[in-house]
Automatic annotation (TrEMBL):
The keyword Nucleotide-binding applies. InterPro entries: CblAdoTrfase-like (IPR016030), CblAdoTrfase-like_sf (IPR036451), PduO-typ (IPR029499). This is Corrinoid adenosyltransferase. It comes from Paenibacillus zeirhizosphaerae. Its EC number is 2.5.1.17. PANTHER family: CORRINOID ADENOSYLTRANSFERASE (PTHR12213), CORRINOID ADENOSYLTRANSFERASE MMAB (PTHR12213:SF0). Keywords: ATP-binding, Cobalamin biosynthesis, Coiled coil, Nucleotide-binding, Transferase.
């Protein structure tokens, strides 16, 4: 089987249940999720230390689930009984976030992406995830989608933020704070 098919040479691509333009909102959404998955793979390659084993396992699971997200969005019409992304996946992300947050110092200022290589890579994942979420919201504004995908992506970007901070904590690297700001978090008004 060849890698090239030539079927997309005129600017269209196949989705499950039809063909659409390559710049269709559906393709933009699942294409951005695919891009995110590549960045998660890169981040995973930076998580070599033993103290990061649970994060490694979580990132590997997230890669599988991002394929599920893309699959759910690739269907032109899909019964909700066939959706792969379920609410339990969102709840599990929340558990992972809560567990990471227990290790992290309180946030007082905005955090600038940086620190360890893994933390930096997870911040890239966070920003690409936010774009994937925006693309999914756009798609959902005019066609029916699995709403759990949107919730999953929203929670996943939060996960990447806290996991980036946890990676820094475990590797003994300080978060990079936005120093031109007053302390804006944790204040009582």
């Amino acid at each position: 089987m060849g890698v090239y098919t030539r079927t997309g040479d005129e600017g269209e691509t196949s989705v499950i249940g039809g063909r659409v333009r390559k710049d269709d909102d559906r393709v933009e959404a699942y294409g951005t999720i695919d891009e995110l998955n590549s960045f998660v793979g890169q981040a995973l390659s930076f998580a070599e230390e033993e103290v990061l084993e649970d994060l490694r396992e979580q990132l590997a699971e997230i890669q599988q689930e991002l394929f599920d997200c893309g699959s759910d969005l690739a269907f032109v019409k899909l019964s909700d009984k066939k959706y792969k992304v379920k609410e339990e996946m969102v709840l599990r992300l929340e558990q992972w976030i809560d567990h990471c947050e227990e290790e992290n110092p309180k946030v007082e200022r905005f955090i600038i992406p940086g620190g360890s290589r893994l933390s930096s890579a997870l911040h890239v994942c966070r920003t690409v995830c936010r774009r994937a979420e925006r693309r999914t919201v756009t798609l959902g504004s005019h066609t029916e989608i699995n709403p759990a995908v949107r919730r999953y992506l929203n929670r996943l970007s939060d996960y990447f933020f806290v996991a980036a901070r946890t990676a820094n904590v475990r590797l003994g690297v300080a978060d990079v704070e936005y120093v031109r700001s007053k302390k804006v978090f944790g204040r009582k008004e």
